[in-house]
Amino acid sequence: MEILHFFTFTDPNIRYVVLGTMLLTGSAAVVGTFALLKKKALLGDATAHAVFPGICLVFMITGSKHPLYMMLGAFATGWLALLLIDLFIKHSKIQEDVATTLLLAITFGTGTFLLSLIQNSANTAQVGLSHYFFGKAAALVSTDVYALTVLNIIITLTIISFFKEFSLITFDSLFAKSLKLPVSWLEFIFTSLMVLTIVLGVRTVGIVLISAMLITPPAAASFWTDRLWMMVIIAAGIGMLSGLIGSFISYTLPGMPTGPWIVLIATSLAYISFLFAPDKGLIAKRIRHARHKRKILHENILKLFYEIGKKKGDLFACHSLAELLAYRPIPIPALRQGIRNLTQSSLLFPQDNMWRFTGAGKHASEQIIQKHQLWKSFLTDYVKEQPITTDENAELMEHVLTPDVMAELQGLLHHKSA
């Protein structure tokens, strides 16, 4: 019944929390995608910590926690922090990461100091101000959802309108400048989006965790695609899914804060992506590596049979395990496994504890020898490499040459000989 009650959104409080967190995490992931690719992940964290002094200062001046005042103060100090970082980088020898870390520490310390002053004052309106550290999604109301909806519309329209321009300044700002693009204005627009996302997000997931929502979903999305537009979509999907699941856990387990659970879910999805993504995941890479090692072993064994047979003058001669090991030292377990695999593939044929080529095995070995000789000729005739290293380099490359590369090499060598 709790699940049904949650997903039917019959309770207005549930509706505000779920919609608010999903809107926030989705928009943060979209902006964070470009921040991640621009290698400005730490900048988001610094901005998140820089907004807290603004929140405290506004409260000290106005004595109120009015959301609009808080947002304006947070936006002002967030922007001031980015401006100071830029000044540090341009007018000193301090590197960007050092300047960002320094400002993060300074602003966070300043915010903590101001919060201590507020807590020691007699103003009872200060209750709940510390929620900006870790967020309190349960306090979201309809006005917050409207604000987050407007934020999503602004971010979506801006990203769609300036997608090509943002892509250029993300990957090659110098090229963008050579095209006479207004790089400074584009950077200003993007930075404003990031600060606005952080300002609206601190109330939901908190200052400490908002940077995780900027970076974690895009980091997870980067394992699934190489296309920027697809990465943006996947990151938004992961962010919104994290918001939905985190809100559900917080609802079903009373006392569990929503913000930390959202970050935990996003982090779990990132680790799942890291492990199980089909192309870039760790498991897929390990599988490809194992396949490549097996392929190298099989081709080396076939080449070994060819070289010994060539030396004997009979490519279909039988060879024993000891004979193979005497000609080329290969670990015995690997050699046995390789011969077993090649026999099962009908490339070798067993005969009285010895093995010989099948017709298919002989053809496969000749292709390997052809690759070796082709690359060796390329290194010798085209690259002018010293003969002492050509065999070793050809040995490495013969296992990765594709038919297309071989055809191109043959064309180059033929053109040179002509």
**Low-pLDDT ranges:** none
The topology string of helices and strands comes to HHHHHHHHHHHHHHHHEEHHH
Number of domains: 2
Q: Please state roughly what percent of the residues sit in beta strands, choosing from under 5%, 5-15%, 15-25%, 25-35%, 35-45% or over 45%.
A: under 5%
Order of strands in the sheet with most strands:
1-2
Keywords:
418 residues, mainly alpha, ABC transporter involved in vitamin B12 uptake, BtuC, Arc Repressor Mutant, subunit A, two-stranded antiparallel sheet
Short overview:
Helices cover 78% and strands 2% of the residues. By secondary structure, the protein is mostly helical.
Describe the structure.
- The protein has 418 residues and is mainly α.
- It folds into two domains: 2-277, ABC transporter involved in vitamin B12 uptake, BtuC, CATH 1.10.3470; 285-417, Winged helix-like DNA-binding domain superfamily/Winged helix DNA-binding domain (Arc Repressor Mutant, subunit A).
- Helix content is 78%, strand content 2%.
- It is built from 19 helices and two strands.
- The chain has helices spanning 2-8, 12-37, 41-62, 67-91, 96-119, 131-134, 142-161, 163-171, 173-178, 183-205, 207-221, 228-252, 258-276, 282-312, 321-327, 332-344, 359-382, 387-397, 403-417, and strands at 348-351, 354-357.
- Strands 1-2 form a two-stranded antiparallel sheet.
- A hairpin with a 2-residue loop joins strand 1 and strand 2.
- Helix 11 packs parallel to helix 13 (258-276).
- It is elongated and about 100 Å long.
